[in-house]
Specification:
The chain has two domains: about 70 residues, Ribosomal Protein L25, Chain P (Beta Barrel), CATH 2.40.240; about 160 residues, SPOUT methyltransferase, trefoil knot domain (Alpha/beta knot), CATH 3.40.1280. The chain has a six-stranded parallel β-sheet with strand order 8-7-6-10-9-11, sandwiched between helices. A five-stranded mixed β-sheet has the order 1-3-4-5-2. The chain is α/β, with parallel strands linked by helices.
Amino acid sequence: MTRFFVEPEELQPDFLVLTGENAQHAKVLRLRNGENVLVCDGQGNECVCTVSDVSPDQISLVVQKRLASESEPQVQVSVYMAFPKGDKLEHVIQKATELGAYEIVAFPSSRCVSRPDDKSLKKKLERWQKIAASAAEQSGRGRIPQVVTVPSYRAALERAVQADLALLFYENEQSTTLKMALSQGEYHSVSLLTGPEGGLEVSEVEQAQTAGLKVCTLGKRILRCETAPLCALSAVMYDAGEF
């Protein structure tokens, strides 16, 4: 069934109207009266609707039933990634959305080469959110993950530690594996924090431990900065029974 995302306030009880890009997309799909579509508010709520009228600027829908999305994971996983070079973050946003991430949070760290200023960051955030929305639609998500930036490494730690389980991945950690960290108790929310291309400074790892994050290894091989968060996210989803 074709899926459309609308703003939460547009998800009315009985009737809906698709306009703008949604209406254009519907026309490309050549939707006709009587066809069923799925309309989501991007926050986990969905409506099964029937097309009632197709006009040049809008598509009118009749709501048949409302339901909670069945495609959203039970565990909320936040992916924290230090600003990488190039378009690597775009790749992580797309794939993390497909894998079920609750949100993606970008932050600066000592070894970050990429340090976008406020002006460029605003444009990047708009693009990143569109990538998340497109990936959510393609993968059948009922919720669009929010892409968030925080101004400092300290702010990222303070935010990440609010989860039931907050993990930082460090290539020089030898004793604590991700499997060990996940087996230490029940969790409903998880924060996964990874560094940039050059990794995190030892002082940053110590700062994370002091803040309350558990430091883990992702194995004996060094993973690229765009691989590590997706690897960790996949492992958490598997452990939570989502795969």
